[in-house]
Target: 3'-phosphate/5'-hydroxy nucleic acid ligase
Amino acid sequence: METNSQYEFLHVGSKSTPIKGWVQGVPLEEQARQQLQNIAALPFVGPWVAVMPDVHLGKGATVGSVVPTRGAIIPAAVGVDIGCGMAAVRTTLRASDLPDNLAQLRSSIERGVPVGNGRGGEHRRMPDGIETRMTQSGLFQRLEAIKTKHRKIRTDKVEHQLGTLGGGNHFIEICLDEADVVWVMLHSGSRGTGNLIGSYFIERAREELAHRVLGFHLPDKDLAFFLEGEPLFDDYVEAVSWAQDYARHNREAMMARVLNEMRHRLPKFQLEKMAVNCHHNYVQRETHFGESLLVTRKGAVSAREGELGIIPGSMGTKSYIVRGKGNADSFHSCSHGAGRVMSRSAAKQSITLSQHREATAHVECRKDAGVIDESPAAYKSIDAVMAAQTDLVEVVHTLRQVLCVKG
Model:
C-alpha cells in the first residue's frame, strides 16, 4: 500500500545511517537523539533507523525505535523484557453489564492474576494445566536445551510466572469502546526468565567485544553485538525466540485467568472475533526492499498492511486498536504506546498524589504513591502521538479505561 510518509530526517551524516522520525508535534529529548545517532553510526545498521512518536531514552537502544541490521544482532537493543507486548479481546458485554462499583472486580482480578515483582507476583502453587500447556507447546524442552548450552541461565520461575503480570508499566485493563462494548486489554512480557536470558546474553556480548578488533568506533558498550556465523549469534536467536514465544503464552494464560474472574462476577458473555496479541519489544528476520534484515523493534509494533495492533495510552487516557497501513519507510511499524515524557524518578518528584487521583478519577485503579511514576502526566499526549503517525496506522477502535490493575 502506497502511503505519503510524514517523517522527517533527524540525522543524515556522511558516515552514518540516516534516521527517519515520526515526531511531528511530540517532544524528543536530546539524550534520546544522541542515542539514536550512536545506533545509526554502526556499520551494520541500515538502510536507515525508523523512530516512532513515542520515542524516549532507553538502555542499550532508544525506546520507540526500529533498528534493522545486516549480519549482526545487538542483545541490549532488544533488552531484558523480551517479547513484552499487548493482548486485547472484545466481549459481548456492554457498559450496562458492569457494576457501578468496580472495586470488587478489580480485587478479584488481582487475586486471580499475581501482580507485582518478587515472590508476591508469582503463583503460590503451579495452576492446573500450566505444566501441560508448557509441555504441549514445547517451551519446556526448548528451554532445557538452551540451559544445557548456557548453564548460567538458571531459573525455577517458568511455571510459577506463566500467567502473571509483573510490575512497572505492565497492566490489565477493562475498557469500553466508542459503542460502549467491553474489552479486556493487558500488557506484559517474558517475566523473570526473559530477564535472565536478556541479561546473560548482554553480558556475553560485552565479553565478546573485549576480544574484537573493530574497524570503527563503538560509542556505547551497550551496543555490543554478535555477528552472524558466530555460535553465540545462533544461540541468542534461539533463546530470544523462546522468550518471545513464552511472552505470548504468558499473555494468553493471563487473559484466560482475567476472563475467568469476569465470568464469576458479570453476566454471561462470549468473546467476539476481534482479538490481538502482539509483541512490541522483540527481534525477527524480515525482508524489506528485497533484502533480508534482522529487525529489532524496541518499543514498536509491526504494522503491515491490514495487520491489527494495539497502542495503549497511560492510566486514565485513551488507547487504540489500530490497523497497519504497511508503510515501507517505517519498516511496517508504528508506536507501542504514548511514550514516557519524564523518568520514573522525575515523575515521583514532580507529580503529586492529588494530581494523580484527579487524572485517574474516572478509573477504578490504584491511587497510592506507589504508582505515581505511571500517572498520565509521566507520559506524552496520546493524541499527539497518534496524530504523528496517521500514515502508519488507521484507528479501528478507541478505548477508554474503566478499570486498571497495576503490578
Notes: The chain has eleven helices and 17 strands. The chain has a mean pLDDT of 94.
